[in-house]
Amino acid sequence: MPTNQLELDAETQRDLDLFEPEGSSLFSYCDHCRTDAGRRALRQRMETPSSDRAQIAATQQALVFINNNRDCFRNLPSEYVALNTERYITSAYPGIHQRGAIEFHIAAFVFWRNDDQFYTKIVRGEAVTRRYIGAMRRLCEAVDQLPEATTAAAGELAPLLREASEILKRQGLSDIREDIDPKFHWAALRMDQVLRQSERDGLTRLLTLAAEFDALVSLADVVQKNGLVMPDILEGDTQITAQGLVHPLLSSPVPNPVDLHSSQRLLFLTGPNMAGKTTYLRTLATAIYLAHLGMGVPATRLAFAPLQRLMTAISLQDDLSSGVSYFRAEALRMRAIAEAVASGRSTLAVLDEPFKGTNVKDAYDATKRVLHGLAGANNGLFVVTSHLIEISDELKNNENVAFGYFEASEGGDTLTFDFALREGVSTQRLGMRVLKEEGVFELLDRIMGTGPSARSN
Asked: Are 262 and 237 in contact (CB under 8 A)?
């Protein structure tokens, strides 16, 4: 895998809901593309986020440029125009290959008389391709009319726009105009020669560039419509700081801070179930993923040093067909994280209740050993949730470990949660209360004939 790419394995993609479930994935959230080709380009970007500072900054600049100059991008080719242009220029329709004037006119006349079906398809293909060229020309001309200082800040868009403009200025394409419809069969077939033979490679490349424009405009739309904030890109040691960070897919999220750096590499999170620990892990990992795309993030502020690896251990599963138990799956995942850190790659790893697949004693010993090891990794940042609050006593003298917790309000008949991160260690033990509130004990008493309902009978 290239060193300038943020590595994401299949487990991390699943935990982040990157592409699944369809309709409520992070990809769906980012997809405002006009065309299927743009959608494919967007997916390629989302599968290969960058870890290169300059590339991330260039994408940020492109999205800012698009949102500051929206009118230039309103007339990108539609799905109908882009798809039918691609079908036309890649078609296997017969054509005229003779170049000399006399030979060409003779062949064109014969083709027109004898291949009416293909001739009609060629004329239709030319018409939609002229529309496509016109849309791309208007985009390039609109950008060319902007002040030079503005276009200089276009980031990764700048070279793509220059290349598109150069293709459109080629001798074969410069005279192709949307409003010039060839009236005679020989003129239509000569244009077909230009589009499907002489300039086929150029038009194919133009389609690729338009798909990249579509993907970038889609990301810019997400930033603008959701009020996302461009992160600050830092140099130096691995570090992430944020204020007001929320998960983009939640309808009413509660903002929380993040503060991980070289002298506070591991955050140990405690608190009852349903209080927000797992959501916090997903929120942080999702924000860092978006930041590496060059996207805005759902926060009031985020600053980060680009990483090389993002890993999660949130929704692990056993694999009965392969004979892998849940605890074995946990051990294998922990090994993958340890290997990433040991390789020297800068890594963010978030772990949700590690080693819950074994007995309490083993879970305690294993978690304690692993956390001390991770806290000593100067190229990694880690957030770990656990119900084993006693481990905090073992970690309190480790200067690289910070402690945070979420809590429930126990007043009234039911538990309530504010989902706000607090500094320190939770002391709440709510398991028995939750079981009681769910009526578990009452049902068991009834089964055993010892509860109030049983005695009344």
From this structure: yes
Angle at 98 between CA 96 and CA 103, to 5 degrees: 110
Partners of 313 in the β-ladder: 351
Q: Which helix (H) or strand (E) holds 206?
A: helix 200-225
Give pLDDT, residue 320.
60
pLDDT in tens, 253-263: 999 999 999 89
Residue 118 predicted with pLDDT over 80: yes
Mean pLDDT of 422-433: 86
> What are the pLDDT digits (tens) for 120-157?
899 899 999 999 999 999 999 999 999 887 777 799 99
Instruction: Identify which of 116, 20, 37 has the alpha carbon closest to the alpha carbon of residue 81.
Output: 37
**Single pTM value for the model:** 0.91
The Cβ of residue 46 has, within 10 Å, a number of other Cβ atoms equal to 23
Euclidean distance between CA atoms 243 and 262, whole angstroms: 18
| Domains of the chain, earliest start first | 10-225 (1.10.1420.10), 232-426 (3.40.50.300)
Q: Are 26 and 16 in contact (CB under 8 A)?
A: yes
Residue with tokens 């194919």: 204
Listed residue (191, 180, 208) closest to 77, CA to CA: 208
Q: For the packed helices 79-89 and 36-47, what is the interaxial angle rounded to 10 degrees?
A: 90
With 80 as the cut, is the pLDDT of residue 372 above it? yes
- Among candidates 56, 61, 16, 63, which has minimal Cα distance to 305? 56
Q: Is the peptide bond before 354 cis (omega within 30 degrees of 0)?
A: no
Tell whether the torsion through CA atoms of 10, 15, 16 and 19 is positive or negative. Answer: positive
Residues in the chain: 457
Distance CA 404, CA 424 (A): 5
Phi-psi bin for 227: left (phi > 0), alpha (psi -120 to 50), beta? left
pLDDT exceeds cutoff 80 at 4: yes
| Residue 2 confidence (pLDDT) | 55
For residue 283, the one-letter residue type is T
Cβ within 8 Å of residue 388, ≥6 positions away: 360, 363, 364, 367
Question: Which phi and psi (to 5°) does residue 399 adopt?
Answer: -65, -15
Q: What average pLDDT does this structure show over 10-35?
A: 95
pLDDT, tens digit, for every residue of 174-183? Answer: 988 888 788 7
Do 281 and 383 contact (CB within 8 A), yes or no? yes
Q: For residues 243 and 304, is the Cβ–Cβ distance under 8 A? A: no
322 vs 234, higher pLDDT: 234
CA-to-CA distance for 73 and 186, rounded, in angstroms? 35
What's the pLDDT at 457?
47
Q: Do the strands 301-304 and 232-233 form a parallel or antiparallel pair, or are they unpaired?
A: parallel
| Position 45, amino acid | R
